[in-house]
């Protein structure tokens, strides 16, 4: 009887990556509308400011305009998406399409964030904004199901760090915690806007046993991460990529962690990494140089996210494709990132566990066993293992 040695797991194809169940924790609703939808909504609402009037060109414009290497200029592009997301109908539509697009990309669980305070310009109140977005997500989940996809979407309410509505938004998130809002976040330009300005919001949420993440360690380094964790009590770090500033790698590959990096790893603080977004805002120079792989090898609680699908022309699958090209990741690696993300979600523990055991693990097992059933599968007498 012949017996082959186990072969190295193969890199997954783009199609396998898309069909693999994935979890997304960091995605902005106003960073992901379809370009065609923006054009139609601009027509309906009379917004004249869109820089292009054809969908392909508009998508391209967003990617180019977001490539400047500066977070501040990157954030300027949101003026256009938020300009047309001011009515109930527009919010329902954008949220529904978001759920459908994520489901089509193989995402089974997502936490999508948005800042209610940015959607009040045409007269909606904060409550109405949340109700419209919730309605849109429920509609999108239903449509996805009709198309054979299963997805569950929770939202995070974001407060803008340069503004002064964080306590109000935190209270809003708490009121809606049993109707689709699973947590809170602060976003916006990091430099000059420390999260400690919003301590009352974080204290309130901790008092209520609620959950929050903070954009930190993206444009600004370790002090921002330290504040988010030790002064504010964040459950997760939005980006957090600059934690590598506290890690030294010697020539022989030995890594030494400083106190903060050790704390982040020891406490299993989830890092919501967003590789393409980091390339655009200057936090990393290329995929191959992105800290995601060092952090993965050091077994930080790393997750892979999109941040803004429109500005980055990306999807969760595309992020994994780029990382697979750069680091040779296998389906086992993608499953590891996915389980990390599911463990770090803000929904109850029993639901996270059920998604891991009943959806994610069986999904990867099914993908990994597909080679057994192809026409060219080896017959008896050879033993091989594939990824
Ligand atoms: O990566 C980001 N860093 C900081 N702020 C961001 C990022 N992506 C989006 N935002 C801002 C712009 C949006 O209007 C706001 C709410 O989604 O959050
Ligand atoms: Zn973000």
List the helices and strands and how they pair.
Elements: H1 14-19, E1 22-28, H2 35-45, H3 55-65, H4 71-76, H5 78-83, H6 88-104, E2 107-114, H7 126-146, E3 152-160, H8 166-175, E4 181-187, H9 199-207, E5 212-216, H10 222-231, E6 236-239, E7 247-249, E8 255-257, H11 259-266, E9 271-273, H12 275-281, H13 292-297, E10 302-304, H14 309-312, H15 316-327, H16 331-344, H17 349-368
Helix pairs in contact: 2-3, 6-7, 8-9, 16-17
The chain binds 2'-deoxyinosine and zinc ion.
The site of 2'-deoxyinosine has 17 residues, from strand 2.
Give a structural overview.
With 387 residues, the protein is of the alpha/beta class. It has one domain: Metal-dependent hydrolases (TIM Barrel, Alpha-Beta Barrel). It has 17 helices and ten strands. Helix 6 packs parallel to helix 7. The radius of gyration is 21 Å and the shape is globular. It starts with 13 loop residues before the first helix and ends in a 19-residue tail after the last helix. Bound molecules: 2'-deoxyinosine and zinc ion. 2'-deoxyinosine is lined by residues 28, 30-31, 75, 78, 113-115, 118, 158, 187-188, 215, 218, 277, 307-308. Substrate binds at residues 28, 30, 188.
Please supply descriptive tags for the structure shown above.
Metal_Hydrolase; globular; TIM Barrel; eight-stranded parallel beta sheet; binds 2'-deoxyinosine; Adenosine deaminase; 10 strands; about 45% helix; 17 helices; binds zinc ion; alpha/beta; A_deaminase_dom; about 375 residues; two-stranded antiparallel sheet
């Amino acid at each position: 009887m012949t017996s082959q040695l186990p072969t190295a797991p193969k890199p997954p194809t783009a199609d396998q990556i898309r069909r693999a169940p994935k979890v997304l924790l960091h995605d902005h609703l106003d960073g992901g509308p379809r370009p065609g939808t923006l054009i139609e909504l601009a027509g309906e609402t009379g917004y004249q400011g869109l820089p292009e009037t054809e969908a392909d060109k508009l998508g391209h414009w967003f990617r180019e305009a977001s490539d400047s290497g500066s977070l501040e200029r990157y954030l300027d592009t949101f003026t256009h998406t938020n300009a047309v997301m001011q009515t109930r109908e527009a919010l329902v539509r954008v949220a529904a399409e978001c759920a459908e697009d994520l489901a089509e990309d193989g995402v089974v669980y997502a936490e999508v964030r948005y800042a209610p305070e940015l959607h009040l310009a045409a007269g909606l109140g904060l409550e109405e904004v949340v109700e419209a977005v919730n309605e849109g997500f429920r509609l999108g989940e239903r449509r996805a199901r009709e198309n054979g996809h299963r997805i569950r979407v929770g939202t995070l309410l974001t407060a803008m760090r340069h503004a002064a509505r964080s306590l109000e938004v935190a209270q809003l998130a708490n009121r809606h915690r049993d109707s689709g809002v699973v947590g809170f976040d602060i976003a916006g330009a990091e430099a000059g806007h420390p999260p400690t300005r919003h301590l009352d919001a974080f204290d309130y949420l901790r008092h209520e046993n609620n959950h929050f993440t903070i954009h930190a360690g993206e444009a600004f380094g370790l002090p921002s991460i330290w504040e988010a964790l030790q002064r504010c009590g964040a459950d997760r770090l939005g980006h957090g990529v600059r934690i590598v500033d506290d890690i030294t790698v010697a020539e022989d590959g030995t890594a030494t962690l400083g106190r903060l990096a050790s704390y982040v790893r020891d406490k299993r603080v989830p890092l919501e990494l967003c590789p393409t977004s980091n390339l655009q805002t200057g936090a990393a120079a290329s995929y191959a140089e992105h800290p995601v792989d060092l952090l993965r090898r050091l077994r930080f609680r790393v997750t892979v996210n999109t941040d803004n699908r429109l500005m980055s022309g990306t999807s969760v699958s595309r992020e994994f494709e780029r990382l697979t090209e750069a680091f040779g990741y296998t389906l086992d690696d993608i499953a590891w990132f996915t389980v990390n993300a599911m463990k770090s979600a803000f929904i109850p523990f029993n639901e996270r566990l059920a998604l891991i055991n009943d959806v994610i693990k069986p999904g990867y097992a099914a993908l990994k066993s597909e080679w057994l059933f192809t026409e060219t599968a080896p017959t008896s007498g050879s033993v091989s293992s594939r990824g």
